[in-house]
Amino acid sequence: MPLRRAHYLVLAMVLATVVAFWPTYFAVLRTARTELHLHGVTATAWMLLLALQS
After folding, report:
1. Which of 22, 23, 32, 41 is the most buried (most CB within 10 A)?
2. What is the pLDDT of residues 24-48, one digit of tens each?
3. Distance (Å, whole) CA 12 – CA 6
4. CA-to-CA distance for 31 and 53, rounded, in angstroms?
């Protein structure tokens, strides 16, 4: 396996995503539209699946 610790990089990407989207999404979580929640859930699931695959 060429990148044995790739899951750490993907998890770092998830953390960077939370930091990057804090002001526009996570800080206003209760007032965000349904479409944004659906997009957030699917994007997060995609990134976590990448971590699990490695």
Report:
1. 32
2. 888 998 998 999 999 989 998 998 8
3. 10
4. 33
Neighbours of 6 (CB within 10 A): 14
The domain ranges of the chain are 6-53
CA 29/CA 32 separation, integer angstroms:
5
Q: Which residues contact 9 (CB under 8 A, 6 or more apart)?
A: 3
User: Who's near 46: CB < 8 A, 6+ residues apart?
Assistant: none
pLDDT band for position 7 (50/70/90)? Answer: confident
Look at the pTM and tell me if it is higher than 0.85. Answer: no
